[in-house]
Amino acid sequence: MSATLGRVLRVSLTTLGGLIFVSVLVYATLSALKPASEVLAVPLSWLPSTFEWSNFALPFTETPFARYYLNSVVVGVSVTVLNVVTCTAAGYSFSKFGYRGRNAVFVIILATLMVPVEIIYVPLYALVFQLGWVNSFAGLIIPAGTSAFGIFLMRQSIDSVPDELLEAARLDGAGELRTLVSIVAPVVRAPIAALALFIFMTNWDSHLWPLLVGADDAHRTLPVGLAAMQANNLGSAGVPMMMAAALLALLPTLLLFLSLQRRFVEGVTMTAGMR
Amino acid sequence: MAILSNRTSERSAEVDPADPGRRGRRRRRGIGLSRDVIGALLAVPAVVLFAAFAVYPMLRVFYLSVFDYNLTSDPEFVGLANFAFLATDSRFHEALGQTGFYVLGTYGPALILALVLAQALHTKTRGMGLVRLLYFVPVAMSWVAVSVIWRVVLHPDGLLNQALSIDVNWLTSSSTARWGLVIMSVWKEMGFFLILFLAGLQAISPDLHEAASLDGAGSFRRFWHLTLPLLRPVTAVCAVMAVIRGFQAFSPQVVLTGGSFETEVINLFVYKTAFENARMGRASAVAVLMFGALLLLTLIQLRAFRRRDR
């Protein structure tokens, strides 16, 4: 009896807390749909008097929002593809071959895992500046083209691929690249998916680096563009547009997360597990 | 360390010479590429990117910390002057204080809340998956978008004030802005640690709890004497990640308070020193100090959590 009561209490309390958590998002969504005069009304009215769906067009008509969005997609997808390719190849290399120096290189890569990338931004910027990559997609994409986490994750995953499988492929005359693409990659597709999801979401959130190397209008990604839009629209007249822009900006990662929850949770626990 | 074990696979010379792949192998040997060479080549793209954009800058940050450097002229050696400057710079000390406040204020409550909620949500009750999702959602959102939304939530006539029937001007003074930041960040980050704690709880065998139950241990005793000690490795990881994530904070401060001095954390201080005042050497010196501090904090945390294992 008391166990049932405890369960009911537990479910209701956690549900209530969860609803309070998402109320912020509901509030943001409804604010995006209100006429500007109603967004900060006292007392608070949750529902708009009229649903202004056209507010969602404002970021596109009033600011270069579409440009920022496209930039973010291009950078996010490129960085993700690059990471999947470089990390899978490196993971295969570190896992299944016995050349000299392999472990030393791997240990150096592992050792950098604890260091937040912000710490190296000054010399990294100086390097990218010297390469002439400031305000270019190269500067946004190439330095983020591989990750210690990804290399570690792929090596761990490929370790579990049986050597017999690889030998069989070689006996059939497949080269190493061919073995990697058509035998190894399909076996470790789940970790690859977790890696891709994790890299994309992290990159989508990236703000400081794109602010340094892509601050001009043509190369601004969403975080940089949104922050600039915010700074230009601090009055309440801009609130519906900014809410709409923020919601549109978080939509891709939110949808990815909702459809690939399990992979995402794996990604988080694996990032933590290797520290 | 198991991950570093040498798992050398067979070399081609050890393969049965009668195998049908022999012709192909001989051809490869003909152009001088043995299997291991090809294997090593596969790591080249990652290693080159890594060396250029991670290892080199990491070494360079130590080098630059003893120079005066503004990006366009040659670095000028100044010894420990950058560090001496930081030792007496009140703005830097203020930034340290803000960072400390932000890390403790955000991640202390976030970790405790996550641990308690993980207990409540670790059950097979139907529908709990959906409830968990409510808490996870902020984790999947970008910091800047979240901050844009919270500017409105923290507005004097925004959701927070009206929901609590209070009248606080959150973002206009340092005494309230830092709390506004903390409230938002707990909301954003709690779910991340909840994921880790839930994963940790799932790894604990239910038999242990059953046995403790039969021995007459109540739910609080089981939590304190069983769950908590078994979760210690997860807690250690969470604590380390909390400190690192807290030190990384940049976007919320920039968007919520416009990067004003009110909430200037270390990362903002470095950003302004390096890129607004062109003091690359001085900013590198801060990075070196951060590097040392993080390393020390991580070691202390790992040690503290390990010692009680014995």
Automatic annotation (TrEMBL), chain A:
Main location: membrane
Location of this chain's protein in the cell: Cell membrane
Entry keywords, A to Z: Cell membrane, Membrane, Transmembrane, Transmembrane helix, Transport
Residue ranges crossing the lipid bilayer per the database entry: 12-30, 68-92, 104-127, 133-154, 180-201, 239-260
Membrane topology (UniProt): Multi-pass membrane protein
Listed InterPro entries: MetI-like (IPR000515), MetI-like_sf (IPR035906)
Entry keyword annotation includes Transmembrane: yes
Family matches, as Pfam families: BPD_transp_1
Boundaries of every ABC transmembrane type-1 domain copy: 69-260
Keyword NADP appears in the UniProt entry: no
Cross-referenced Gene3D superfamilies: MetI-like (1.10.3720.10)
PANTHER family on file: ABC TRANSPORTER PERMEASE PROTEIN MG189-RELATED, ABC TRANSPORTER PERMEASE PROTEIN MG189-RELATED-RELATED
The family this protein is said to belong to: Belongs to the binding-protein-dependent transport system permease family.
Protein name (record): Carbohydrate ABC transporter permease
The organism of origin for this protein: Tenggerimyces flavus
TrEMBL record, chain B:
Recorded topology in the membrane: Multi-pass membrane protein
Keywords attached to this entry: Cell membrane, Membrane, Transmembrane, Transmembrane helix, Transport
Organism: Tenggerimyces flavus
Family: Belongs to the binding-protein-dependent transport system permease family.
Transmembrane segments: 37-59, 101-121, 133-153, 179-201, 222-244, 285-305
Statement: the UniProt record of this protein carries the keyword Ubl conjugation: no
The name this protein goes by in its record: Carbohydrate ABC transporter permease
Domain ABC transmembrane type-1 per the UniProt entry, residue ranges: 96-301
Pfam families found in the cross-reference section: BPD_transp_1
Region of interest (Disordered), residue spans: 1-26
